[in-house]
Amino acid sequence: MIDEPQFNPWVSRHSRFLDQLWTFDRVNPGRPPSFFRINWSQPLGGGAALTDARFATLLKTGRELIYMLMTAPPAGRRRHRSTSAISASQHLFAFYRWLSANGYTRIADVDADATSGYQRSLLARRTRKGRPLQPNTLAGYFIVLLDLHRFRERLSDGLAEHPFHGLELQELLGSLAPTGEIPHIPMDLAVPFVMVAVRWVREHGPEIAAALERAEDAYGAAADQGRGRSACEIAAARALREFRFDRPPVLQGEPASEFLTGLLQLRLLVRLATTASFIVLAALTGMRLSELLRLEEDCLEQVPLEDGSGNNLLYLRGILLKTAGTPHGDRVRWVAGIDGPDNHVRAAVELVRRLTAGVRKRSNAKRLFLAIALREGKRPPDTPGGHTINWRVNAFARTVGVARPWRFSCHQFRKTFARFVAVGDKTGLLALKQHFKHVSIAMTDRYVGRDLELLELVDAEKQHGIRQALDELLGADCLAGKLGEQIVARNHRFRGRAGEQVRNDYVNMVLEETDLVVLPHEYGYCVYRNEVARCGGIWARVGLSTCIGCSNFAVGPAHAPFWERRRHDGRELLVELESLPGREPAAAAIRDMITQADTVFARIQAGVAQP
Q1: Helix or strand holding residue 199 (H, E)
Q2: What are 401-428's pLDDT values in tens digits?
């Protein structure tokens, strides 16, 4: 308990303990500056405020609790950084509003039955979409109550009784469904969406950057002549009339004009190109929003490979915030594949560097992502916030078009990156496969940074993929491939609804007690056993021609689209060969391919007669 009447230490570089407003450094550029404050003059409803005299004990206890979490937490818990302290204060204020509405002015007067009422009110709350609060959201509210009880002897006021009748947090949340998990973007959406962003970075972005540079040069020349802002903008617009796109982007399904109509159109295209670069970086590195927005213009770094190839690994050098050991983050690197002109991460960084060069020059800023402007405004250039980035990503999706509706968020790209790295050789990722192969290797070597959560995400996705594969293989009554035929002959007890629990228990045992390797391909599964592997464990030998005759290979119903497409493509090729001389050797090979596809396709289709 803090009793000294003059106790008024610094809580940040800007604020002291007794200040009405605690202001912190803006360590996360994904949040607006207004987020980094704790306002102790908090409204409590009915015209009351926390700074009113009757709530003096609540105010003092609240300051003590947040300060204690920041400076002297209990054993086993890390000190709260500013963002965690701000979050804890918001959950505390929610409890204080409930106390005020129910006539309490002291926490000690609240018993366990009363806190159960507060718990019920939280469980009854609904989001704007009408859904219950997610378990991870509820955890924040519940932890504050537990801390008010745990630290009651060290605070001016506290909960005398355990708020949840002895239940700890995990027990309390154990019965709630994990509705708060952020999903990865489905592959049928993610791959084409990332590739469209790559096209913007590669094809449209450099032309948009050239147009912006022309407009900025004209604006600057007019400004040097002493012209006013309007005259400078007119000069910039005139310069754009002479600019012509060689490859105009497609907007809303229609090719844009080869010529720019003015500065507003240029700003729209610059925003889209910058957003495309953000998507490429997020999808191909797995970095969090806060880490991407803290990248600086010189963030690229090369590290020579030690395999004698002469190649370099490319890294993005930045600041890890969330799991860092210091309040201002740790300097780490994120792997971005083999460096070279074909590296999409390099292309995205270099494009953003060009698009923001003028703003950076005028403001002496170092950040890579900055708001685009031809001139200096009333506010200094800054990085956009998280809500702005989310809006821009969804606006980009609406502009370029996606296969089906999807609500994108920045963190989904991190989950999707882990999925990309974990799924292995999917030919749907053909244009990105080599990148992720290099990334997957580099993430386990000595060059990897300290983003351990990202490694855990990748591992979790690999385990999820193995679980799905085993569940399908064990529960199937129609499989192709040498191993597939062996499994079908022995998996009777695992099939159908009756075998669901047995199958689930067996899969859990395999995952927990063995080091089984299951490699997913679009054309089938490899349940890898080194002693019978036709590839010999050499990745360069892996391919359909090797796998199809391997004792490790199985094909399930999930792979039917590949084999149906292979059969269809073969038939079309035969038609095209009819008019060509000397076609018979090629036609024979294609007929073999069709026969193989027919055989596999028939075996994996339930109810189809076996050939």
Answers
A1: helix 187-199
A2: 887 888 898 888 888 888 777 765 444 5
What's the burial of 66, exposed, middle or buried (CB within 10 Å: 0-12/13-18/19+)? buried
When pLDDT is cut at 50, 70 and 90, the band that residue 180 belongs to is: very low
- Which SS3 state, helix, strand or coil, does residue 47 take? coil
Select from 490, 488, 468 the least CA-distant residue to 478: 488
Sheet order of strands, 300-304 included: 300-304, 312-320, 330-338
**Can you give the pLDDT at residue 609?**
39
Amino acid at 535: C
Distance CA 426, CA 432 (A): 10
Tokens standing for 420? 């990309």
By DSSP bridging, strand 43-45 and strand 254-255 are: unpaired
Token pair of 330, please?
Answer: 């740790």
- The whole-angstrom separation of Cα 355 and Cα 206 is 9
The DSSP-derived string for 59-121 is HHHHHHHHHHHHH-PPTT-PPP-HHHHHHHHHHHHHHHHHHHHTT-S-GGG--HHHHHHHHHH
Sequential DSSP letters for 2-17: ---TT---BSSSS-BT
pLDDT digits (tens, 9 = 90+) for 332-377: 888 888 888 889 999 999 999 999 998 888 888 888 988 766 565 5
Q: CA 25, CA 456: separation in Å to the nearest integer?
A: 30
Residues in the chain: 611
Longest dimension (CA), the chain: 100
Count of helices and strands (H, E) across the chain: 21, 12
What sign does the dihedral 267-270-272-278 (CA atoms) show? negative
Q: Give yes or no for residue 437 having a pLDDT over 70.
A: no
pLDDT tens readout for residues 466-516: 787 888 888 888 898 898 888 888 888 888 777 788 888 877 787 777 777
Task: For 299, list phi and psi in degrees, rounded to 5.
Answer: -80, -10
Contact assessment for residue 548 and residue 474, using Cβ atoms and an 8 Å cutoff: no
* Dihedral of alpha carbons 186, 189, 192, 198, sign: negative
Neighbouring residues of 356: CB distance < 8 A, sequence distance ≥ 6 = 274, 297, 368, 369, 370, 372
Q: For residue 52, what are its two tokens?
A: 């009113």
